[in-house]
Design goal:
9 strands; six-stranded mixed beta sheet; 304 residues; Rossmann fold
Length: 304
């Protein structure tokens, strides 16, 4: 395939922005057609800007799943929100995802106040439409467009996939003419080491729900190809309290074993090879102030 501008190809970036738990990660996985972003009921689980790559006809759409935008309180929060707005500013289109059931809350209002500063084409996407009656949906869409006129408005259910193909098709049309930036079969530019760490972090949240604060992180310390074609992966789960370490390990090591089994299954799918996964838990009270941890997550380390 000739992916030069003369061949009629299009390529561009779409930033998905919104409040925490608006459904951005679920939507990007639907748009790409496979899992590229961590999904959890716990808020603020997406920390770095994860790129998912989708093809729509002659268009290559590079989706950026940003951390949820919220009022930052700590250094990590500031890094996450900074990454989200940076992605929105650099994109060709900025898609504001709003939980239709929650409607316009303080976080959505704050985003509406800042979004006009972005030069990107602005798209409104109302998600979770299956939880709201149609008249209320239309009223919400009208209020949001009064607050900030959007180029287009879409109503979808990211979880069920309703309306997602139409959204992807229209976003493809918005992309500027140009050659594709990635090979045809590539679905993400997240390094496997980071993706593996994100998978394990997701399994921790799935298993422990509200027992463990979201301020925990996973680092892939070793990724070693073995002579038999398998890969040995060693990951460290960093928590801030000794009590958190006991929660992650569980009685007799049962919890960490279950987390490792679930994570290994998905890492095998992502890596396409046999995986030997070894998990370790360490207490690092001030990991939120460690610049190296931020670099591993693809975030800028905020000063001060």
């Amino acid at each position: 395939m000739n992916n030069s501008p003369g061949a009629g190809t299009r390529c561009g970036f779409v930033a998905l922005i919104g409040a925490p738990n608006a459904g951005k990660s679920t939507l990007i996985n639907q748009l790409v057609g496979t899992k590229v972003s961590i999904v959890s009921r716990k808020v603020q689980t997406t920390r770095s800007t994860v790129r998912g790559i989708a093809l729509e006809g002659a268009a290559q759409i590079i989706f950026v799943d940003t951390p949820g935008i919220f009022a930052p309180k700590r250094r990590l929060d500031r890094a996450m929100v900074g990454a989200a707005w940076g992605s929105a500013g650099d994109a060709d289109a900025a898609a504001l995802l709003v939980d239709a059931h929650k409607g316009i809350d303080a976080e959505v209002e704050a985003i509406l106040g800042k979004l006009p500063q972005s030069a990107a084409t602005k798209i409104l996407v109302l998600n979770k439409i299956d939880t709201v009656e149609p008249p209320k949906l239309l009223e919400l869409a009208a209020k949001l467009n009064d607050a900030l006129p959007f180029a287009q408005t879409f109503m979808i259910s990211a979880l069920r996939g309703h309306g997602v193909p139409k959204l992807r098709q229209e976003l493809g049309q918005l992309m500027p003419p140009g050659p594709w930036l990635y090979p045809e079969d590539q679905i993400s530019d997240m390094p496997l080491r980071l993706l593996a760490a994100e998978i394990t972090r997701e399994k921790i949240f799935e298993r422990l729900h509200d027992e463990l604060p979201y301020a925990s992180t996973v680092a892939t310390e070793l990724w070693k190809d073995m002579p038999d074609g398998s890969v040995r992966i060693e990951q460290t789960i960093y928590v801030m309290r000794e009590g958190h370490k006991k929660i992650v390990i569980g009685e007799g090591g049962r919890t960490i074993k279950a987390i490792g089994t679930a994570a290994r299954k998905e890492i095998i799918e992502a890596a396409g090879q046999k995986v030997h996964l070894f998990l370790f838990v360490k207490v690092r009270e001030n990991w939120g102030d460690d610049p190296e941890r931020y670099r591993e997550m693809g975030l800028d380390f905020p000063k001060g």
